[in-house]
Each structure stands twice: as structure tokens, then as C-alpha cells.
TrEMBL record:
GO terms for molecular function: adenylyltransferase activity; ligase activity; pyridoxal phosphate binding. This is Beta-ketoacyl synthase. The lineage of its organism: Bacteria, Pseudomonadati, Planctomycetota, Planctomycetia, Pirellulales. Belongs to the ATP-dependent AMP-binding enzyme family. Signal peptide: none annotated. The chain holds residues 574 to 1001 of 1001 of the full protein. Keywords: Fatty acid metabolism, Ligase, Lipid metabolism. One of its GO terms (cellular component) is plasma membrane.
Length: 428
């Protein structure tokens, strides 16, 4: 080989990139620091990583001060419920704090199967499998069930864990317009024939807007095109339907019409972890092959027992779901009457108050805190600037008085902040 043709010459000709080995110089890190500086310039305290020194339900304690809380997913007030806490403590005494291995090898306890049978029954399908995190349940399941040569069509407002799972899978990924089953139908007509498996993914309740899809229409579409339908019930499990059985109960359709039900145990079930519920075959396949299950530890005993106990309390006290619905509708109706923009929220426990401006959202949240109300702002770049908002999570434990006071204060400060644009430039 003459000069300029050998392996060394080929390496020399390859364009060289600047090595990066210092995180402080990463573009992502510099962007983060710049965003934080901008936030500091507003004079409003950083709203993230607030320390809550108690169980967070309708109330919380921050810096020693009691606040009405609208910032936790403790929708049914079961985290902190004495029966749930005792069940977790008893399970820890009996089985320890960790199962110390993947369940496939030696981490299996009797309560794992008990919880999974209970979830399957709750959802209305054959069986279920639980994993240690909700986010990782989506990632590993979606990432594993489809791959190159397959197609994923997901709602444009899908949660990050769905998008991450789709990216991991290597399948072709196309979002469809939010809740638009007709657009989905058209995409399937155009694309279905080119792919082996097609997975459609939607959510039971959307956590940014508190709205939900016409799921029976999605079932119709998926059947017509022989696609699989997955529904993430993170925010609808325990909250939707007359007794909290989820979006299938809300619409009154057979849960077996959905191929893959996913949910988290960190919200209504006051624990931690995720589940996939569906056919025996689906669960069996995941139990033996899903990387995030096979190569990860089983759910810890305390968390398993807490989820079982939460479902037991809920079976006995379905009125919690009724109270949650009553509170959610009250909050929504009062907000609308007060002229606040609650977007498409549909009587679910998630009610956004859209400010359309990050600074207004930040200041509004800070003013409410001074009034004794804890609510998280959602700012750009988490959402478009025009969609900046406060996001209220309602619980069954809020009182009518807390809700009326909160809506009145929110409307008061919002109007004040927006009335005079000059006020935006001063400190709130
Ligand atoms: N799916 C959705 C729709 C979610 O909103 C979330 C988290 N809020 C998850 C999955 C992940 O659940 P977890 O926080 O329990 O990991």
C-alpha cells in the first residue's frame, strides 16, 4: 500500500472532533446554568427541589410553615394512611427492606404475586407484572416489545418515558396530533402495511392538561388496522371510573380490548413502581425477557405491601374516588367562573391554570406560597412559553374551604400580575 491509502492514512483523514471530558463545559450544562441565572434575575426563589418535611396530602410543611398542597400525586390520600403505613412496616419486618435480587433468580416473595393478581383483577385483565419504577416500566416494555421494522404511533403529548421507550426500541416513531383518532386512522391507512408490528400509545389522563382521549374510538381504530394499543394509566388508575378502576370503567368498555395496560404505583396506590397488565402471554413474555425486569431487582417488600393495602382501602372506601371527582369538578368550575384559563381539563384531578408566560407562572406560584398555598409552576422549556402554567393536583382530602380559598387567591394574584404589565418587571 502506498502513501495515503493504508489504515493509518484513513484514520488521519477522518475529521477529528474536539474531545470533551469536563461536564462544566458541556453545552447542556451551560444552558442549564444560563436558565438558572435567568430565573435568579427575576428575584423569585427557585421553585424546584422544595423540601417537604412531612407526608404530603391536602397539606404540607415547607420551612416550618403549613401550606395547602396542590403539588403531589397523593390523589386519594393513601400515602400516610395508617393502615397502608402499617402494612409496609409489617412487610419490612418480615421480608427486609430489599428483595436483594431479580425475582427471576431469588427475589420472589409471596406478596409480589398477590399484588400482581390484585392489579390484574382491578384492571379487568388476565395478569400483570410489576417493576421497580413507572418510568422504567414504560422504557423497558416499549423498548422490548417492538424493534426495527416495527412502527410506534404515540400521542404528541406523550410522557417522556413513552418517548424514551420508543427511542430505545429502534422502531419507526411517529407522533399523532393530541387525542386525534381520525388523524391516527389516516396514518395507519398510509403506513400499516409497511410494518410488522404497530404499537399505538395513549394515556388514560394527560398529566399536563388533565384531559383524556375518547379511548373506545382508539380501540375501534386499532382493531381495524390490526395494531396493538397501549394505555398508560399513571393518572387514571384509581381516579377515573365510578370506583377508580380507570379509563375502561369510565367509558364502560371491556379492558381486554386494550392490549397493554400500563400504570404507576406511585400515585393513587401510594407506593413506588410500575405495572403492565394484559394477557397471560404478554405477562409471561415480559417476566422472562424484559431487560428492565429480568436484570433489575424486584419491588421492595414495603412498597409491594403498601400498594396491596392501598387497593384494599380503596375497595372498602370507593367514596374516596367520588370525593376526588367532586373536588376536581369544584376546582375546575370555580376556576372557570373566575375567568382563569384551565385549558382542556376535563374534571380529572389535574387542573392547569395557563398563564401563557413563564414569569407570570413563577411569580403567581411564589405569591400563592406567601398566602399558604403550594403549587408548582411549569415553565419554558418544559412547555412552550405560551403554555406556561401552574398545575394543580387535586386530592380527595382537600376541603371545599381550601379549594374556594385557593381559586380566589389564584384569580386575585393572576389578575393583579396581568393587569399591569409594568408589575412584571418589578419584584412580585
Ligand atoms: N407515565 C406517566 C404518564 C407519568 O406521568 C409518569 C410520572 N409522572 C410516569 C409514567 C412515570 O411514573 P413514576 O413517576 O412512577 O416513575
Amino acid at each position: 500500500t502506498g502513501d495515503g491509502e493504508g489504515p493509518l492514512a484513513r484514520v488521519m483523514q477522518t475529521p477529528q472532533v474536539e474531545p470533551e471530558d469536563d461536564v462544566t463545559q458541556f453545552a447542556e450544562y451551560r444552558r442549564l446554568k444560563s436558565t438558572m441565572r435567568q430565573m435568579q434575575l427575576t428575584g423569585v426563589p427557585n421553585p424546584y427541589f422544595t423540601v417537604h418535611d412531612c407526608v404530603v396530602g391536602d397539606k404540607t410543611i415547607v420551612d416550618g410553615k403549613s401550606l395547602i398542597s396542590f403539588a403531589s400525586y397523593n390523589y386519594l390520600g393513601l400515602s400516610g394512611h395508617p393502615e397502608v403505613s402499617k402494612a409496609a412496616a409489617d412487610a419490612i419486618t418480615k421480608y427486609g427492606t430489599s428483595v436483594s435480587a431479580s425475582r427471576l433468580v431469588s427475589g420472589e416473595k409471596p406478596i409480589h404475586g398477590e399484588l400482581e393478581r390484585k392489579i390484574a383483577k382491578w384492571v379487568g385483565v388476565d395478569n400483570s407484572i410489576t417493576m421497580v419504577g413507572g418510568h422504567s416500566t414504560n422504557e423497558t416494555t416499549i423498548g422490548h416489545l417492538v424493534g426495527p421494522g416495527d412502527l410506534i404511533l404515540h400521542d404528541a403529548l406523550s410522557h417522556n418515558s413513552i418517548v424514551q421507550g420508543a427511542l430505545l426500541s429502534g422502531a419507526k416513531r411517529r407522533p399523532f396530533p393530541h387525542n386525534d383518532y381520525e388523524a391516527l386512522d389516516k396514518m395507519l391507512t398510509a403506513l400499516r402495511g409497511q410494518y410488522r408490528r404497530t404499537l399505538i400509545i395513549i394515556e388514560g389522563v394527560y398529566s399536563m392538561d388533565g384531559d383524556f382521549a375518547d379511548v373506545p374510538k382508539f380501540v375501534e381504530v386499532k382493531k381495524r388496522h390490526r395494531a396493538m394499543l397501549m394505555v398508560d394509566e399513571a393518572h387514571s388508575f384509581g381516579t377515573m371510573g365510578a370506583t377508580g378502576h380507570g379509563i375502561a370503567e369510565h367509558f364502560g368498555f371491556d379492558a381486554r380490548d386494550v392490549d397493554i395496560w400500563m400504570g404507576t404505583l406511585s400515585k393513587s396506590a401510594s407506593s413506588c413502581g410500575g405495572y403492565i397488565a394484559g394477557s397471560e402471554a404478554l405477562v409471561e413474555l415480559l417476566r422472562y425477557t424484559a431487560p428492565g425486569f429480568v436484570f433489575s431487582v424486584g419491588m421492595p417488600p414495603g412498597q409491594v405491601a403498601a400498594a396491596i393495602a392501598s387497593l384494599e382501602v380503596l375497595e372498602r372506601e370507593p367514596e374516596r374516588v367520588e370525593r376526588l371527582r367532586h373536588n376536581s369538578e369544584l376546582f375546575l368550575n370555580l376556576s372557570r367562573e373566575a375567568g382563569l384559563d384551565t385549558g382542556d381539563s376535563g374534571g380529572t384531578p389535574v387542573v392547569p391554570v395557563i398563564t401563557g408566560n413563564s414569569l407570570v407562572a413563577l411569580r403567581l406560584s411564589n405569591r400563592l406560597k406567601k398566602d399558604g398555598i403550594n403549587v408548582q409552576p411549569i415553565l419554558y422549556p418544559a412547555v412552550d412559553e405560551s403554555a406556561a402554567r401552574l398545575r394543580f393536583f387535586i386530592t380527595s382530602e382537600h376541603s371545599e374551604e381550601q379549594i374556594r380559598f385557593t381559586v380566589e387567591r389564584t384569580a386575585h394574584h393572576y389578575n393583579d400580575l396581568c393587569d399591569t404589565p409594568a408589575k412584571l418587571r418589578g419584584t412580585a
